[in-house]
Task: structure prediction
Amino acid sequence: MSRSAVSAFSALAASLILLSGCAVTPSPTPANAPLRFLLINDVYFGDTVRDGTAGLARVASIRDSLQRSGPVSLVLAGDFLSPSLLSKWYRGEQMRQELNAAGVQRVTFGNHEFELNRDTLISRIANSRFKWTSANCMLSTGEPFPGVSRWDTSTINGVKVGVFGVTIVEGYSKYVKCSNADSAAHSAIAALKGSGAQIIYGLTHQTKEADSLLLMREPDLNFILGGHEHEWHRILIGDRRLLKADANARSAQLLTLTRAANGWTQSDELIRIDKRFPFQAATQAVVSAWNDSAAKRLGRERVVATTEFPLDGRDAVNRTQESPLGDLVTDAMRLGTSSDAAVMNSGTMRIDDILAAGPITNYQLESIFLFSDETRIMSFPITGSRLRAILEHGVAEGSVGKGPYLQVSGVKFTWDHTKPTGSRIVGDIMKSDGTVIGPNDTIKLAMNVYPACEGGDGYVVPEAKAACDMRDSAPRAVDLLLKRMSQDSKGRVSPPVAGRVIRQ
Ligand SMILES: [Zn+2]
Result:
């Protein structure tokens, strides 16, 4: 995709690399000063990614550098408190501190923020130096979260800039209620217009399709800075922009509004956060301290097993079909809990990466399961007919390709994607050895806490109630996996037996 913007980036990179100081760009006067917005989204950790690029401390240094030539607003379009390795233990506190240090000014909710419990989320909001805005996600009482505005305005270079936030509507925890994003946005835009905002933008966390339609429908909306997708996007509706950056601050989007005779001209720039940019020391100090605390908890990173096959944990694979990673994980769940069968919703496996054949470390295994419920495994008796209902939900329309899709162990079945939801499984459900599981047979099923106890991904499993009441003493998926790979397999892991789920 070609980028029309004149490269402010080269000047920016040069000023950082050559360290030639603030003399490079003279400070513009307020009358002609552009309005600038630096967007990051879906940032689950502040550290660099595996190849050494990205990092919040680099974003902070870019913001600092830009600020020498006039104000720039650093905003984050949702998904940052969860999930991550550190959030499993610290529930987003580490990100709150790192984002405070980096000088993020405004955020909206991503869908993953609501994985924290109510009081934790409220506390994170209360202790943020950055502002929170959401027009459509409220407490279940209908009241806004304390400290979260529906919309807000600020005056930048003498211009009144209005912002609102909206978040994709999903099946969240009971304490939160998100109303229709389009109508919430529409009311917010009207209110902002009424308040005299000269520029109005949306800070959103929804699909790019929903964002594009919103921009098309709302002529008074100047631009959208969004998140949720993990790859950068740049979509133009006339001259109005919808921008998203790459996840984990691998890139940032810089939007510049320049005053023109008949309004504002927009230009944009995708800034890849690579090794050319220095780390801002204050932010990096906070990031490093939290990384040290992970090392204290997990001990040193060490090789725990060697796999003879690549563990494909990419979402695109894991959420549409039986995968070697899914087979391995669910086998570990089944065997480690002495169950007959095991299922896990694929959305619980968060690695979204291929672990190459060869040595695998404890950190890599920990990084497969990132939710703060620690992916504890419940086991409980269930009838064959109820097992079938659960497996049907996993292959339902709306489940395949998404988080609810199940990885399974100890069972095999065939399903037909052309059949209606609820009756897609063809023929009997069998145990691995081919024995039919009849509707009235009772088996012992292992299932992770999110679908089993929380109604997560639309699963309703009353049979798990007693196990869920004791969930804190249930085994963690990662410990079962570690045992399976290091002890049962004696550190040498061959590909699990496949052919469990056949798609017709
Ligand atoms: Zn998201």
